[in-house]
Amino acid sequence: MHNADAETTSPSGNAAGWNFDHWTQGEPASQASRDSTVSHSGSASLKISLPQGDDGKLIQAVPVEPNTWYRLSAWVKTVGIPNAVKTGANLSVIDAMEFVGDIKGDQDWQQIVAWGQTGPEQKEIKIAARLGFYGSLATGTVWFDDISLSQSEPPAGAKIISFMPPPPAPAATTSSSAALVNSVVIGASLAFLLLAWLAIQNRSVLNHRFADLANGTLSWQQTASALTLIAVVIFG
Ligand SMILES: [Ca+2]
Fold this sequence. Notes:
Number of strands: 10
Order of helices and strands: EEEEEEEEEEHHH
CATH superfamily of the largest domain: Galactose-binding domain-like
Shape: elongated
Mean pLDDT: 88
Bound molecules: calcium ion
């Protein structure tokens, strides 16, 4: 990882190697910075401040080996994160739907740790030092320092989180709706074949029946029986 201890400054004065992203568009009060007044190690840390409800994250893409266990950890300090928010300060991997840590209130430095396994094709993960989560807005201030990612097998009882994005959603057509479409197509085809067979067998009678139907001279009983026959052929 690059600048995991937040001691290096970028040309713009922020923490080098970390990009800030947040959910609520047009919320200028949501900010991240390198804070040289608060630290767990050295003289600085990463700071995220969300005065209004938001999901704020400092992100760094890190190369990884496929099919490999990693230990992910960070030191975290919080101020003013309400207990009512759904998700407090945490570490997660972008697009994976699990996190470690859910720190709220005013808490001095503490370490959060989890293990995760990369996927068979995975060559990079985007680590997020975060306040809030997908579908979960938070307010307050969090500092992160000494973030770490290293190859390590999880010990018994370890907290494990997903490092992999969810698989693509299945196709929109469900098996039940496909079956219904097949039934209707088969029923309509059988009805057409029956009418064609009737037409060949007794063209003049059928012509008279259609003429009667068109002229409205069939009784309601005859109309009902004809419609019932068609319904039985299609849906039966
Ligand atoms: Ca530091």
